[in-house]
Amino acid sequence: MDDTAPSTKLPVAIIGAGPIGLAAAAHLLGRGIEPLILEAGDGVGAAVRDWGHVPMFSPWRWNIDAAARGLLEASGWTAPPDDVHPTGRDIHDLYLAPLARLPAIASRLRLGRRVVGVTRQGFGRVRTLGREAMPFEIHAARADGTVEVVFARAVIDASGTWFKAAPAGASGLPAPGEHALAARIRYGMPDVLGVDRGRYAGRRVLVIGSGHSAIGTLLALDELARGAPGTQVHWAVRRTDFARIYGGGDADQLAARGALGQQLRARVESGAIVVHAPFPVSGFRAEADAMRVLSLEGTSVVVDEAVVATGLRPDLSMLGELRLDLDPALECPRALAPLIDPNEHSCGTVRPHGARALSHPEREFYIAGMKSYGRAPTFLLATGYEQVRSIAAAIAGDHEAADRVEFALPETGVCSGPKTGAEASSSCCPAPARAATRGEVAAGAASSAGCCGQSADAGATTACCDQPEEAAAATGCCGPAKGVATVPSPNAVEARPDDRQFAVVAASPRRGCCSPAKG
């Protein structure tokens, strides 16, 4: 590091002790750099524990960081079988908890420290001269209300987004009545078949959202309904492009993810799940012993409970005194935004990326993991592991290693450009995964092409199929879903994407079908 950098005797502060934060610590230790992990909860993996009942789409081989694996195996730990799909609870109990117990991690872990502010020592956001020579000053609140101040040479924010759910309102704000009826509304993925069973059994339940959290909750409620008479499952969807919602099926290289959408399709087509679409939520209103959920379409549905699964948002409040370069729409690092924008991508077209794409004007500050995607959908844990490997290399001054991509991810079978209504489609044109070159990673940060090889400026509005439109529709490629049982709304509207999940992949370019963004 140069003479203007803060002292290398200070640690690198890591905010969050989830999978990505602990992986960051392992990579820093591997480079002889001292980490300091600040965790708000009373144990590691607080978010993972919260969704502990949820099975992962990806098997164990994608969910264990290489540097963390090395530390664990040196202690005699045996990894779970590569091809087994863990639940969140498994991730915590079999991986994160043993990792946190290692002396190398435990001695650098401070629990019950909620970071409330990050700045430069003696410098607010405005002051420039001499800024980079000052260490980071981090304020962490303890449970008793006192604030601990720590100093660091660099900061990696891996605090995630799990505890900041997006509201139900289609306009991005809480819908009128949403707060007043909070006792009937849950966010995320309740444990429908476990601790929350009594809340939903025999009730009319509306799930709002169309991402994988919504799909998983719908399937759990459907299973509950089979054994709990009177349980009714309703699904509110902002758009009507069900082929994209159901996903890639057999084309998805993560089989568990592909199967999930197909299970939902079967239950919808059987009539077990009542679909309300398009149904952009506009309000909630108390009605007798229930509530009425209203739509911008002028329709409504009366239910007892609602589960809102419309995505997550980053909490940026603690970063107000730092100089960040964030995309104004997605609230992610600006260089990353073209690679993950849900207006342009619904498939595995995101290039692997590292420190360069995640850096900010505030030197040596990085946002990694789920939070790095801002409001865009989430990604595989392996994506975050590659991010922090690259960041640790950059902090160590090894820029060649920071720029080198060392992995390739499985892609999703959902590879269409943005479509609306009946025009929406799902691609059947997967490209083989491979590792990108160093040059491709640098180029990816300046992406100007959208999914399917079209210019993002022009807007990717055609389907990613080489077949003629008629043939594609007949084979199910790029055609609307058939046989969907819906409750129609009077007017079709263009609906914005909400919380679809994207896999990150380095894909070989293929003409007209899900080619990666080009520099």
Short summary of the structure?
The protein contains 15 helices and 17 strands.
How would you describe this structure to a colleague?
About 25% of the residues lie in helices and about 15% in strands. It has about 525 residues and is an alpha/beta fold. The strands form four sheets. The protein has a six-stranded parallel β-sheet. It has a five-stranded parallel β-sheet with strand order 3-2-1-7-16, covered by helices on one side. Helix 1 links the parallel strand 1 (about 10-15) and strand 2 (about 35-40). Helix 1 crosses helix 3 and helix 1 runs parallel beside helix 12. The longest helix has 16 residues, at about 210-225. Residues about 410-519 have low confidence and may be disordered.
What key attributes describe this structure?
6-stranded parallel β-sheet, 5-stranded parallel β-sheet, 24% helix, alpha/beta, 15 helices, disordered C terminus, 519 residues
Cross-sheet strand order for the largest sheet: 8-15-9-10-11-17
Radius of gyration over C-alpha positions, nearest whole angstrom: 23 Å
Number of helices: 15
Q: For the terminal residues, how far apart are their CA atoms?
A: 29 Å
* Envelope shape: globular
* Approximate helicity band: 10-25%
How is this fold's topology laid out?
Blueprint: E1 12-15, H1 19-30, E2 35-38, H2 46-50, H3 66-74, H4 88-101, H5 103-106, E3 109-110, E4 114-120, E5 136-141, E6 147-152, E7 154-157, E8 185-187, H6 197-200, E9 204-208, H7 212-227, E10 232-236, H8 242-246, H9 255-269, E11 273-277, E12 281-287, E13 290-295, E14 300-303, E15 305-308, H10 337-340, H11 355-358, E16 365-367, H12 381-395, H13 399-403, H14 438-444, H15 469-475, E17 486-488
